[in-house]
């Protein structure tokens, strides 16, 4: 039976929505526990939010005569895309260019070296609030930035880094985990 109360929208969690940490950082296993201190917030994300493309590609196998007799999955990519808009945030710059390619801070000066070195795998957590204070957390235990869109420097527009990350399988062959939990009622409230 359909239930309209199960329909929801997603808003970023106050204080940050996307967090990054080195590979091997202790990962959360629910929607509400405190994140390990190694996770850094990647600041504001554009109004488009985050998108997940998680669909298999298949190849149909035909018999002589043209009948489709089987369909086999050839791949199942799991990617997340979002635009990071805090262009002055050192942690955002490290996410886009790589830790080794960004040094300094705003007061002393930031230096970025752009090169063809491969970016390292790392952990990502995406947090959001759903209707009724329900928390949702998506955990990518092993993710790698696979694409950064064109960076536009225009009057009247935010500088942003359109970022696509590839979620890679962990030791259990899972590319990401999703945790959803209702807000705990306050006592005496």
Describe the structure.
With 189 residues, this protein is mostly beta strands. It has one domain. 4% of the residues lie in helices and 40% in strands. The chain is built from one helix and 13 strands, in the order βββββββαββββββ. The chain has one helix at 90-97; strands at 11-12, 18-22, 40-41, 51-53, 56-62, 68-76, 79-84, 102-105, 109-112, 122-129, 135-148, 161-167, 177-181. The strands form three sheets. Strands 1, 2, 3, 4, 7, 10, 11, 12 and 13 form a nine-stranded antiparallel beta sheet that branches. Strands 5-6 form a two-stranded antiparallel ribbon. β5 (56-62) and β6 form a beta hairpin. The longest helix is centred in the middle third of the chain and has 8 residues, at 90-97. The two termini are 32 Å apart.
Number of domains: 1
Helix-strand string: EEEEEEEHEEEEEE
> What is the subunit arrangement here?
single chain
Overall pLDDT score: 87
Query: Treating each run of at least 4 consecutive H or I residues as one helix, how many helices?
Result: 1
Question: Nearest-angstrom radius of gyration?
Answer: 20 Å
Uncertain residue segments? none
Secondary-structure class = mainly beta
Largest beta-sheet characterization: 9 strands, antiparallel
| Helix percentage range | under 10%
Strand content: 35-45%
Give the terminus-to-terminus CA distance. 32 Å
Overall shape: it is globular
Tell me how many strands there are: 13
């Amino acid at each position: 039976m359909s239930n309209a109360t199960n329909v929801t929208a997603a808003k970023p969690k106050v204080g940050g929505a996307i967090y990054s940490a080195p590979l091997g950082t202790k990962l959360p296993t629910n929607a509400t526990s405190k994140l390990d201190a190694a996770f850094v917030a990647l600041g504001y994300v554009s109004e488009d939010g985050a998108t997940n493309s998680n669909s298999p590609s298949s190849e149909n196998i035909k018999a002589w005569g043209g009948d489709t007799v089987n369909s086999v999955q050839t791949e199942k990519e799991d990617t997340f895309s979002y635009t990071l808009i805090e262009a002055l945030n050192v942690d955002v710059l490290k996410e886009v260019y790589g830790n080794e390619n960004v040094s300094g801070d705003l007061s002393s000066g930031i230096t970025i070296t752009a090169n063809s070195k491969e970016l390292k795998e790392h952990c990502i957590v995406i947090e959001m609030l759903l209707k009724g204070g329900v928390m949702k957390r998506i955990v990518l235990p092993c993710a790698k930035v696979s694409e950064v869109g064109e960076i536009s420097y225009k009057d009247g527009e935010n500088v942003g880094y359109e970022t696509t990350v590839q979620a890679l399988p962990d030791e259990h062959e899972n590319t990401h985990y999703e945790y959803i939990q209702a807000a705990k009622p306050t006592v005496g409230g």
